[in-house]
Amino acid sequence: DDASALLKFRDGVTGDPGGLIRSSWVANRVDPSGCPSQWHGVVCSNGSVTGLALGDLQLQGEISPGTIGRLSRLTSLLLGNNSLGGKLPEDLGELHALQFLDLSANQFVGSIPSSFAGLRSVVNFSLSSNKLEGPVPDMFASMVRLGDLDLSGNSLSGGIPPSITSLRQLVSLNLSWNAFSGVIPREMSSLESLHRLDLRQNRLSGELAPENAASLFASELQILDVSSNLLSGKLPSFSFVFSLRVLRLQNNSFVGYVPPALLATESVLEELDISFNNLSGTIGMVAATSLSILRLASNNLSGTLPIRLGSCAIVDFSNNNFSGNLDVIKDWRDSLQVLDLSGNSFDGVLSNETAHLLRLMYLNVSHNALSGPIPGTLASLRKLTALDLSSNNLDGEIPGDFFHSPSLTIFRVANNNLVGGIPVVSFLSSSAIPGELLSPTSISSTPPAVLFSPLQVLDLSFNSLNGSIPQEIASLSGLVVLNLGGNDFTGGIPSQLSRLRYLENLDLSSNHLRGRIPAQLPSSLQTLNLTNNDLSGHIPANLLSRFPLSSFFPGNAGLVVPGSSGAGIPSLRSRRGKGLSSAVKAGLIGGCVAATVIIIAIALFVYSRLQAADKNSSDERDVVKSPHRLEFGPPSAAKAGASVSLSREQLLPQQGNVPGSPEQGDGRDTKKKQEGLLTRKRSKSRTTLLDEGPSSLERAPSQKARSPDKLAGDLFLLDSSIVFTPEELSSAPAEVLGRSSHGTSYKATLENGHMLAVKWLREGLAKNKAAFTREARKFGSIQHPNILPLRGYYWGPREHEKLVISDYLSFGSLSDRLTERSGRRFPPLEWSQRVRIAVDITRGLSYLHTKHKLPHGNLKASNVLLDGSSLVARLSDYSIHRLMTPAGTANQILNAGALGYRAPELAHARKPKPTLKADIYAFGVILMEIVTGKGAGDIISGNSGAVDLTDWVKLLVSEGRGPECYDQALVGYDRDQEPPQGIDDVLALALSCILERSERPSIKVVQEDL
Predict the structure, then answer these.
(1) Locations of Basic and acidic residues compositional bias (predicted)?
(2) How many CB atoms are located within 10 Å of the residue 144 CB?
C-alpha cells in the first residue's frame, strides 16, 4: 500500500535535520482507510496518497525505485530545496496522475529518464538546480497540459527537444544555465501561450531569424532572455513587437544597428539589454515611455548621446565609442537613477549637466577625456551613493562639499590632474573630532556634535595632491578602502588612522611621506601598501606579522625590519663570521679562474660533438622545469666544482638561431626545416633571470637567493589586488617557460602561492623609461574577459633588467592543446571546444581593434592562454611591441615570420610594424592550426616537396582535397569519421584571413562569420 511505500522512502532518507519525517512517519499512525495519519507533508484521500509536500527540509538521501513511484494517485510531488541525490528513478514516469512535479534545488545526477514521457497530466515540471547532464529525451509530446517547464541550472546538452514546440499551453519555458547547443527551433513561434522564454547561458548559435522572430514576438511573449550564448548576425527589426516587456540579448555576437523600433514610442519594453555584442551605429533618441532599464554597454556604438532618454532609470552606455560633450544630459528627465558612461571618448568640461537629476544614485564617467574642475553641484545630489570620475583630465581642487554628502559611499577620482590637499580639513573646521582627534583648544563646556560620514571607498590616487594627510580624515569612520597612492603628500602617517575600525585596504604608496609607521593601524586591515615613500624607523612588529615585506618595500630606505642588521630590506644572503684572509681570497679567485677555463674547454668540446651529432638526429627537446631563484643583480660566475647544465642553444652563435615563443606552456625555440618531419625545438635550460645573454652559461639551482640590501630599480604594479617587492620576486622559486625574440619567460611562485609569468626583455629592446612607462600604463589598464592583463613591470638600473609581469595560467596554451603528440599533458580538444576558443580570440581581438585601435602584434597559438576547466581563451603578450624600440619590433616580426604567423606585407617593409590586418592574417593561421592540429611552424613533406602549413592547406584545397588536412583527432586516424559540423566553414574563413592585405576581412566580419 501507499503507507509502506512511503516508509520505504523514509528509510532511504539519511539526513532529516528537523526530524519531521522521522518523528511523524510512524507505521502505526494509519487510519482505517489506510491513509497515513498526521504524517508531515503527506496528503491522503480514500486510502491513496495524493500529495507530498516535503520542500525546504534539508533532506538527504536518495529516492529509491519502488517508493514514490508506487503512489499511483499522486498529483503533487514537491521535494524542492533539499539535498536529495542519486539518479532519478525510472518509475516516477508511471505517475500518470501527477500534475505538479518539483524536484528543484537538489543533488540529482545522471540523465533525465525517458520514462518521464508518461507524466501526461503534468502542469508544472521543475528539475532546476540539480546536476543532471546529457541530452533531454524528446518526451514532451504527451504532456499536453504542461504550462511551466523549468530545467535550468543543470548541465544538460544537445539540442532543444523538438517536442517542446508542440506544447500549446506552455506559458513559461526556462532552459537557462545549461549546455544546450544548436539553433533555436523555428517552430518555437507556434507556442501561442508562451509568456516567458529563458535560454540564457547556453551554447546556442545561429541567428534570431526574422521569419522566426516575427511570429514569436507577435504572440503573447513578454520576457525573452537569450543572453550569454553564441548567437550572431543582425537583429530583426522588431517592428512587430506587441507585448514584449523584457528583452535580454547581452553577451552574444550580434552585429548591425540597434533596431529603432525597440526605442520607439510604440514600444512597451521595460528592460532592454544588448550589451557585450558588436553593434554599431548611433542612438538618435529614446522615445519609449515604458523603458526603465537600458543597457548597451561594450559594443561599438558611436556618435553623441541621445537627445532624449524617455523615462529611463538605469542607463549603461559604457565601453563604446560615444564622443562629444555631456551637455545633452541637461535635457534628460529626472527619472535617472543609474548612469554609466565610462570607457568612451567624451570630452569637454564636466559642468552642471546633472544638477537636476535629483534621483541619481550612481554616476560613472571614468575613462574618458573630460576636463576642467569637478563641479561641486554633484555633491548636492542628495541620493548620490557612488561617483566615479577616474581616468580623465580633471584639474583644480577637490570640492569639500563631497565630504558633506549624507549619502555618498563611493568616491573615486583617481588618475586625474587634481591639486591641493584633502578638503576634509576645511570641512571639519567647524566640527570637533571625537576621541584623540580633539585638540586641547577645541574643548569647551558644550560637547560638539560628532560627525558621521557614509563614505566607504575613497580613491584619490595618481593625482598631484599635496600637503600632509590630515589627521581629521579619521573622522570618515566608515571607510573600508582608502587609496591616496601616487600623489605628492608629505609629512607623516597620522596615528589617528587606527580609529578607522572598518578599514580593509590602505594604500599610501608613491608619496613623500616621512617619519615612523604608526604602532597601531586598524586590526581590520587586509591589504597595506606603504611602498615608495621615505619612511624610517622600525616596522611595528604587529604589522610585520600580518603583512609581507612587499607592503613596505621598495622605497623607505630608512625602515628597519626588527632583527635585521640595518635599514632597508634585509639581505637574504647567509650570515658569515669573520672576513676571509687575503691568502684565502687569492686562492679562491685562482681556483675560480681555473674552473672557468675548464668549463669553457668542456663547453667547446660539447659544442663540437653536438654539431656532429645533429646531422643524424632530430632536435626534439623538452623544457626542464627545475626550481631555481629569480636573481636581481649581475650574473655571478659558476662556483668551482659545481655542475653546469649546458644547452646547444647557449653554445651556438646567437645569430644562427630563430627565436621561438616564450609563452606559458610552450617551450618552442626554433623551427628547423627537415623534410617529412614535424620538428619542435624546446629549451632545456635552467637559468637565472640575470644570466641572459647570447652565450651565458647556465648554473645549477642556487640554494640561496642573492638579494642586495636595497634594489635600485623600480617595480610598478598596475593592479593593487596583489602586491610584492622586487626582493620577493627575486627570491621566488621559478621555472623557465621558454624563450623568444623578446627574451626569456619564467613562472615565478610567490610566498603566498600566487603564480606569475615574468617576461625578461632582452638587452637593447626596450624604449627609454618615460616611453616604456607611458605605454605600459596605457595598455596595462586594458580589461576584458578574453585578454590577460598586465600585473606590472620592473625597470632596473642596468640595460638588461626590464621585466613585464602578468598572471600565470596553469591550463596551458592553445599550442599545447593542439600540437602536443608525445607525453601529452592534455587530452585532444573537441571540435566544440576549438570553436569556442576561436570565438574567444575574436572577442579579445575585437576589443583591442575596435575599442583601443591597437593591434595585438604578436598573435600566435602559444599566446592564446586557456583559463580554468572551461578553457576560456585569453590573449597574452598583446601590444608588447609598443614597449620596444623599432629594432625590437622588427626582431619580433622576424620571429613571427620564422614561426609562420607573419603577414606577407611585413616581410618586405623597410620598417615593419604590427597592423590590424596583420593580426587577421595571424588569426587565419591559428584557425588553420585549429582545423589541422598542426603547428604554424611545422614543415610538411608532400609530392611537391616540403611546404609550410599555409601553403600545404592552400594546396590541398585547390586540388579539392581539403578534408585531408583535418586533424585526425577529429576525423579518426583512418579518416573514417564524419567531419565535425562547420569545419568546412572555419577552414574557408581561415583562407579568407590570409588573403592579400586589402582583401582580408575586418575583425568584426570575422567574428560575425565565426
Answers:
(1) 616-631, 665-675
(2) 13
